[in-house]
Specification:
- The complex is a heterodimer of chains A (about 525) and B (about 375).
- Helices cover about 35% and strands about 25% of the residues of chain A.
- Chain A has about 525 residues and is of the alpha/beta class.
- In chain A, strand 14 and strand 15 form a beta hairpin.
- In chain A, helix 14 (about 390-400) crosses helix 15 (about 415-430).
- By secondary structure, chain B is mainly α.
- A two-stranded antiparallel sheet of chain B has the order 1-2.
- The longest helix of chain B is centred in the middle third of the chain and has 30 residues, at about 125-155.
- The chains are: A alpha/beta (about 525), B mainly alpha (about 375).
- The interface of A and B includes residues 80 and 376 of A.
């Protein structure tokens, strides 16, 4: 492959040409001799499942890692990128999944932070330049707003402006839409198109197919550290891309059955919750969840989803007047308000809860699989824990969910995000729950695993469990759930039949309180 | 496509990488032993360079000083027991990420309780007296742990400051009782308690003065090992230490566990005070704990809360301590030289943990170089 000579014939060499890039972490080959070109004025999607090496590859371009083998050419010249600072001198800027901003500083201060410009810091000129960048690409950034006052979307915008301010013309965005609402995503895409029109190169790392199709000019697919192929976006389909990504045909269908034998399982009424700072997080929430159906909960992140699930699980205190009535199949209703998780377990409530924070709440990162299986059942033994049942359960979960782990004795923090989630979901479902609550169950998971999880949830529904699914991907919510409850700023802005509602309408309910009309029978 | 690993493939000269897989047990112990040998070699060079004494003689003297005679060996064993006992006490608190640096105070109040029994109930038979002293020392130490534990659990106070401050209360309390129990009058010490009747002294077992110390500590070492590893409470400690949210999620009563664990921690340190008074010095003073409460932090940490490993670490520390005193006297060396040697050995042994946790890659070789 004599790519170098090939480019020499061209008038403009590509903005970036990565040649034979290899990166190893111990025995794991994260990138195996990957070739990648990024043209000027294009939006390139870097597509791949979790752990396929997308972020690793881009981290080498932005100076976070150093490659073990291969070369990088920027505008046709060989580049030596050893640090993020080097990357900036080549005009490369990366917007990471986890923002790197200082909360107590203002937008303008964050932008100049770490820049070594001689002389005194002149925030006035900074503001002027920030405004100029914003006008040019259609951003909205208030230079004097503190980062802690910003929404996720504002922070992301600030990150992009920060990178542009430093003169980047090659921008890398790592999973930028993971935290945005549909409307915010549209806005971001608008900005990306403006950047492209200005001749900048934009790389978007993602595993969401409809975004790839919507925004990019070209798609490069990685799988397990290998370059699988590249196609112009116009010449491919979601199915074809999925097959490339996964390496085998995957069905993108969620089997949604009609709810059967619906019985009232959880009746929440007038539930309000304040957080530890006294901020009202849930405001007079009422709804009913039935066994045999999946109730989806949509909303901008931080609209009270977390508090709602945690209140049901006994982890948040409900304000007086609220009530959570749980009715076990064939049993008398019981009030859960005022009970601790321990009390709830003692009552025999078959409650499964997959929290948003997997390693911070659902699992213990430094423990191995059996010890994590034990988390909810450790109390069964007398003085000493019973070690055999969790070991068997761990082995079963590993087998049924195809968890990739070196051994059962591996601390789970060493597993990948998807495998960690499988361990968590596996444990929760093993208890044959009557009520199953999941918060962002597929966040960060690859397509294959995501669909596996959707199907597991559907199965649980068919078994008669009441499933509450808090999700962020509206397409999935509409396909998977039977009813959708939309939260907006801690209030229920509407409960709708998922089969007869448009995505846009849900998006609207997410940002505006609806007229509280419900279609409940 | 072949891996292109060309010589111009750039990388920094030295790259440090966290090991992805835990090292096998024998490998890591090999590294530790290697570090010890390397330390002894470096020390040998330094000894020869500075004082021109045959290093082997110095090492022999160190061994002489700590384990050379039967008597010295038993004194060393007694001191090891003391350190390990405190280390065992600290382990549950540390595992819960509760930084109990109040062992000094907990030892002192435990010792006070023991001494009080010896003074006020000197007419009881020793067996009964000891059976009374043990739980009372544990309770005294336990109270010293319970107080910061409750405050942490209820109001999330900073345990580091709290336990540290409790030390000073214990020291002042001890000073008060030393004045109260002064014997002989005007000496400002308590003197040897029950020197003639030996009431409340550890009895000789099989002709050994300190065998009871060993037995008590051995029970604690084994008990704590299984408590942390296999018991329900040990599991709760591990979960709370890792994440309180996870603990709450799992239905663990976090405040309850925190208070209970710190109380246990204090109680065992209280037992160490009992060992110090009834099993070693037979007196009490403000220096009864003598900094061992802090040294034991090293023991607990280096052993990563494995109580059996604590015995090894404790032995190493006591060996270095006694050995350096011995060479200082035997060769007329200044105290500093022997402290230097201790420092070098500790540096190597502690530093070796780095090679167990991390791998080094050098660009030229592009292979794993370091052990």
């Amino acid at each position: 492959m004599e790519a170098l000579e090939l480019h020499a014939e061209r008038e403009h060499p590509p903005a970036v040409f990565m040649h034979g890039i290899t990166k190893r972490f111990g025995s794991l080959v994260a990138n195996d001799a990957i070739d990648l070109t990024i043209e000027r004025g294009e939006i390139l999607s870097l597509l791949g499942e979790n752990g396929s090496g997308k972020t690793t590859l881009m981290n080498m371009l932005s100076g976070i890692y150093a490659q073990d083998g291969g070369e990088i050419y920027i505008h046709g010249k060989k580049a030596r990128i050893r640090s993020p600072k080097d990357a900036f001198t080549y005009g490369i800027g990366m917007i990471h999944q986890h923002f790197k901003l200082v909360p107590v500083l203002s937008a303008a201060e964050n932008i100049v932070l770490g820049l070594r410009e001689g002389g005194l810091l002149n925030l006035k000129t900074v503001r002027a330049r920030v405004r100029e960048i914003c006008d040019r690409y259609g951003f909205v950034v208030e230079p004097d707003k503190k980062v802690y006052d910003m929404s996720v979307s504002e922070k992301q915008t600030l990150e992009i402006v920060k990178v542009l301010y430093r003169g980047a013309d090659i921008l890398i965005l790592d999973e930028p839409t993971a935290v945005l609402t549909p409307q915010e995503t549209d806005k971001l895409f608008e900005v990306m198109r403006n950047l492209k029109a200005d001749g900048k190169s934009v790389v978007i790392i993602t595993h969401k197919l409809h975004e790839v199709l919507a925004i990019s000019d070209r798609v490069v697919v990685l799988r397990r550290g290998l370059f699988v192929g590249e196609v112009p976006t116009g010449e491919t389909t979601a199915q074809a891309l999925t097959d490339m990504m996964v390496g085998q045909a995957v069905s993108l269908q969620i089997a949604r059955t009609e709810p059967e034998n619906m019985t009232e399982r959880l009746a929440v009424s007038n539930l309000s919750v304040r957080d530890s700072d006294g901020v009202l997080r849930l405001d007079d929430v009422s709804f009913t969840a039935y066994g045999g159906e999946i109730l989806g909960i949509a909303g901008i992140s931080g609209s009270g989803q977390k508090e709602l699930l945690e209140a049901v699980a006994g982890l948040q205190r409900a304000l007086p007047g609220g009530s959570i009535i749980y009715t076990a199949p064939g049993k008398e209703p019981t009030e859960l308000v005022g009970l601790s998780p321990r009390d709830i377990r003692k009552l025999g409530v078959a409650l499964a809860f997959v929290p948003e924070d997997r390693l911070g709440m659902g699992l213990v990162a430094s423990m191995d699989l059996p010890d994590n299986m034990m988390l909810k059942s450790y109390n069964n033994g007398f003085i000493f824990t019973l070690r055999k049942p969790p070991r068997h359960l761990a082995a079963r979960v590993v087998q049924e969910f195809q968890v990739k782990t070196p051994s059962l004795k591996t601390p789970i923090r060493r597993l990948s995000g998807g495998n960690i989630q499988k361990v968590l979901v596996g444990r929760e479902i093993a208890g044959e729950p009557a009520l199953l609550m999941t918060a962002y169950a597929v966040r960060g998971l690859d397509i294959h695993t995501s669909y596996a999880i959707y199907n597991i949830l559907s199965e649980q529904k068919q078994k008669g469990a009441a499933v509450i699914y808090v999700g962020e991907d509206l397409d999935v919510l509409l396909e998977l759930c039977d009813r959708i409850l939309v939260l907006c700023a801690g209030k229920v802005s509407g409960i709708r039949d998922a089969r007869n509602i448009k995505k846009e309408e849900v998006g609207l309910l997410m940002t505006h309180l609806g007229e509280e009309k419900t279609d409940e029978a | 496509m072949k891996h292109r690993e060309s010589e111009h493939a750039a990388g920094p000269v030295l790259r440090i990488e966290k090991r992805t897989q835990e090292m096998r047990g024998y490998m890591s112990w090999g590294i530790r032993a290697g570090a010890l040998i390397a330390a002894l070699l470096v020390c040998a060079v330094i000894i020869w360079a500075i004082v021109r004494i045959n290093p082997l003689r110095v090492y022999a003297a160190m061994f002489q000083g700590s384990f050379g005679t039967k008597n010295k060996m038993w004194v060393s064993i007694r001191d090891i027991c003391m350190l390990v006992c405190i280390g065992v006490g600290l382990a549950p608190a540390f595992k819960m990420r509760f930084w109990n640096i109040g062992a000094e105070g907990q030892i002192l109040v435990g010792g006070l309780a023991a001494a009080a029994c010896m003074i006020y109930f000197k007419n009881l038979p020793t067996g009964v007296l000891l059976l009374m002293m043990l739980p009372l020392s544990a309770i005294a130490g336990g109270v010293w742990g319970f107080v910061p534990g409750v405050f942490k659990a209820k109001w999330n106070t900073n345990e580091t400051l709290f336990t540290l401050m409790m030390n000073y209360i214990a020291i002042q309390l001890t000073a008060y009782f030393v004045a109260l129990w002064e014997n002989p009058f005007g000496s400002n010490t308590v003197g040897v308690i029950n020197g003639i009747t030996r009431a409340g002294w550890f009895p000789e077992i099989l002709g050994q003065k300190y065998l009871l110390n060993v037995i008590i500590v051995a029970v604690l070492v084994v008990g704590m090992y299984f408590y942390l590893r296999n018991s329900k409470q040990g599991y709760e400690i591990a979960v709370v230490g890792e994440s309180e949210n996870t603990a709450r999620y799992a239905g663990i009563r976090v405040p309850h566990v925190v208070t209970r664990t710190v109380t246990i921690s204090g109680a065992i340190c209280g037992i160490a005070g009992f060992l110090a008074v009834a099993g070693a010095s037979h007196t009490i003073s403000t220096s009864t704990a003598g900094g061992k409460g802090f040294t034991a932090i090293i023991v607990a940490w280096m052993a990563k809360f494995n109580t059996f490993v604590m015995v090894l670490i404790g032995a190493l520390l006591v060996f270095l301590d006694k050995g350096s005193i011995e060479i200082a006297t035997q060769f007329g060396l200044s105290d500093h030289v022997s402290k230097m040697l201790t420092g070098i050995i500790l540096f190597f042994v502690l530093g070796s943990e780095f090679f167990i946790e991390y791998k080094l890659h050098f660009r030229a070789a592009n292979k794993e170089v370091a052990k």
